[in-house]
Amino acid sequence: LKLIMKKESQNFSPDTKYINASPQSYTNENYLSLSYGDMLMDNERNQAFQRAIESALEKYCNKDFVHVIDIGSGSGYLAMLAARASANRVTAVEQCSNLVECARKIVERNGFKDVITVIEASSTEINERNIGGRADIVVAEIFDTELIGEGAINIFRSACHDLLKSNAMVIPAVASVYVRAISSLFLRKCFEIEFCASNNMEKCNGLRSIMEIDFDSLPPDSFDFITSPVKMFKFDFADPSTLSVRDTVTRETFFTFNSRPSKSVDAILMWWELDFLGDGSIILSTEPSHSSGLCKKWRYHWKHGVYALPHSISIEKSELLLIYGCHDEFQFWFNADIKEKQQLEYLRS
């Protein structure tokens, strides 16, 4: 698909043609390139969405008319994938005016103007009347490093209530959040704030929210994994009843520690996984290669989340680790504690 990533070359020349060219158009298209270029070049992401969209539309092959809505459409790329896969109508919803103008040009240049309608709006502020009737399929790529930071929970809840048919397909269908406890003096120092002005000043424990980093860029000897991966949260985007937007959710998970005799637990590493059709056939994961053992996948638009614990925890081989997680509409928090093995066996008995 042809994407407009920049203006024609003559519009960048310092002559009167450049001065007379539309400065708004120049700004919009460079905004697209600078803000979304890395994401648009993520082949694994693009191929996963393409396969999911094509698979969903195949299930509607006997239906006379299929309406797809693309929420947070951006450049219109996913909307065009749906149009190319034979959707009869595609509604692309984007609230950023810079991107709306770009998307309309891109859609027209690719020959999908009669199929795709680009609407400048927030999907949570429109209803079925604004899009010409409820949709059969919704596709949305509205995820950040922390998965829910762009409002995915409320956006999918709102779409299910106001924009979709009761049996509509949601792409992606399910998202899961995974964590691993890590020991790292280097990361601990990154979070802490040292005060040198006075010995009477209490040491600040540092940042509690997410630190976004490329975890795979860390030297392997700068950290140790204390636990194996564990699933902390699961979001079923097609079922609004499972998507809590105001109440925090807490999980407790027990881990055995099978490494050195003792170690400190300093932080929690977090990543997420998308199950596009809900059946495990199309999966996209942001798990760092340090954890998965697979080849490194560098991404600028999705990094890895690291959360410092309020205090480092010393854990011994005979003890078990509990990890607590909670979230609101936009972010996660994690904490940890230990429980001695003997105490756990007593509680289980």
- Mean pLDDT reading: 83
Q: What is Rg?
A: 24 Å
Main beta-sheet annotation: 7 strands, antiparallel
Please estimate the helix content. 25-40%
CATH superfamily of the largest domain: Hnrnp arginine n-methyltransferase1
Distance between the termini: 62 Å
Give me the number of helical elements.
Answer: 9
Taking pLDDT < 50 over at least 5 consecutive residues as the criterion, the unreliable ranges are 4-26
CATH topology-level fold name of the largest domain: Hnrnp arginine n-methyltransferase1
The number of domains = 2
Number of strands: 15
**Share of residues in strands:** 25-35%
H/E element sequence: HHHEHEHEEHEEHEEEEEEHEEEH
Principal-axes geometry comes out as elongated
CATH class of the largest domain: Mainly Beta
What is the second-level CATH architecture of the largest domain? Distorted Sandwich
Q: What structural category arises from helix and sheet content?
A: alpha/beta
